[in-house]
Amino acid sequence: MKLVNHKIEGISFRAAHYTGGVIVPTIVVLHDTAGRLEKGSSAAYLASQKASR
What we know:
The protein is low in regular secondary structure. It has a domain at 25-53. It has one helix spanning 42-47; strands at residues 3-4, 7-8. A hairpin with a 2-residue loop joins strand 1 (3-4) and strand 2 (7-8). The two termini are 37 Å apart. 0% of the residues are buried.
């Protein structure tokens, strides 16, 4: 498999009808199955006030 211009070479491509507009997210889903609920974990980092915004 080879990517050329962000497309897989050798597979037909048809652009989506609606493209190029501004995307405004209405919800963000964070999924973490490997993190532990302890100091230094991803859940603790995201819940802290020190997290970059």
